[in-house]
Design goal:
The chain is α/β, with parallel strands linked by helices and 264 residues long. Helix content is 33%, strand content 23%.
Length: 264
C-alpha cells in the first residue's frame, strides 16, 4: 500500500543551517498495516509524513501509494489517496462551516467540484449514523459550527472526515498531542476502532511510547532521519516501555527519549 524507496530530504542545503532530515529511507506498508512511529525530536518522523503527503518533494528516491508513483504528484492531487489528521485540531476542519457541511466536503475529496454543490438528506442520514458511532452526541448537532466544538470533538470530526472515503493511506501526525489525557485516550480508542474496523492502512507518528506499543501491529523507531528499528507481530505485542528504553540505549545513534515520550 505504501513504498518509500531511498527517500532523502535535506533542508537549507549548502548553508550553515543545512539539515539532513531523511537519510535514504526504505519503508513498505502492506494493506491493513497500522504502523506507529516513534523517535526523539528532529528524528524525521513528521518530515517523512510530509514527504508522503506531498508537502516536501524528496531530493532522492520515490514514493508509491497503492501501486501509483506519486513522487512528483502535487499535494492537492494526492488527496484522492490520503486521509490526514494533524496535531492541531484547528487544521483539519473549516471552523465557520457546520459539521454536516464539513463532512460533505470531505466526502467529495479528490472529486471535481463546482461552486454549486449540494447534499441530499440521504447523505446527511449517513453522516448522522457515523457521528452516532463516535459516541460524542454530535449526531444531534449537525448544524453546529465546527468552531464551537471542543478540541477533542473537533479532532474526532477530523478523524471521521479523513476516513470517510476510505483512503488508501491514513496519516496521523501526533493527532492527540494537543488534547488533555482523558480526551486523548478517547480519540485514540476511536482511531483504533476506525482503523481496525475498516481495515485501513495507517501510519501514526506519536511521542507517547505507551501508545506506540499499545496500538497497531507494527512499530518503527527513527533517529537522525533513519529508520533504526522495525518491530511487528508477536514481538511488538510483548514490548514494554522498558524494552523500548533499552532499544534507545542499544542503538547508539538514537536520541534518548524525553519525559514526554515516557510519561505520555
Amino acid at each position: 500500500m505504501l513504498e518509500l524507496r531511498n527517500v532523502s530530504k535535506t533542508f537549507n542545503a549548502g548553508t550553515v543551517n543545512e539539515k539532513l532530515a531523511l537519510d535514504h529511507i526504505d519503508l513498505t506498508l502492506n494493506d491493513g498495516d497500522f504502523v506507529t512511529v516513534i523517535g526523539g525530536n528532529g528524528a524525521g518522523k513528521s518530515t517523512m509524513l510530509n514527504a508522503i503527503a506531498g508537502v516536501w518533494k524528496p531530493d532522492t528516491g520515490s514514493i508509491v501509494i497503492d501501486g501509483v508513483d506519486v513522487t512528483n504528484m502535487p499535494e492537492y492531487k494526492r488527496a484522492a489517496f490520503l486521509g490526514r489528521v494533524f496535531q492541531d485540531p484547528m487544521l483539519g476542519t473549516a471552523a465557520d462551516m457546520e459539521i454536516g457541511e464539513n463532512l460533505a466536503l470531505a466526502a467529495r475529496r479528490g472529486r471535481k467540484r463546482t461552486l454549486h454543490w449540494n447534499h441530499s438528506q440521504a447523505e446527511y442520514d449517513v453522516y448522522r449514523e457515523q457521528l452516532t458511532d463516535l459516541g460524542l452526541g454530535l449526531e444531534d448537532r449537525m448544524s453546529s459550527k465546527v468552531g464551537l466544538l471542543s478540541g477533542g470533538q473537533r479532532q474526532a470530526v477530523t478523524l471521521l472526515m479523513a476516513t470517510l472515503r476510505h483512503p488508501q493511506l491514513l496519516l496521523l501526525d501526533e493527532h492527540t498531542a494537543a488534547l488533555d489525557p482523558a480526551t486523548a485516550e478517547k480519540v485514540m480508542n476511536l482511531t483504533d476502532s476506525i482503523v481496525t474496523g475498516t481495515h485501513l492502512t495507517a501510519l501514526m507518528v506519536t511521542h507517547n511510547m505507551q501508545n506506540a506499543i499499545t496500538y497497531g501491529n507494527r512499530l518503527i523507531m527513527m533517529s537522525a532521519g533513519k529508520i533504526i528499528l522495525d518491530i511487528a507481530g508477536e514481538e511488538k505485542k510483548r514490548l514494554t516501555i522498558e524494552d523500548l528504553l533499552r532499544k534507545f540505549r542499544e542503538l547508539g545513534g538514537a536520541q534518548m527519549p524525553t519525559d514526554r515520550m515516557i510519561l505520555g
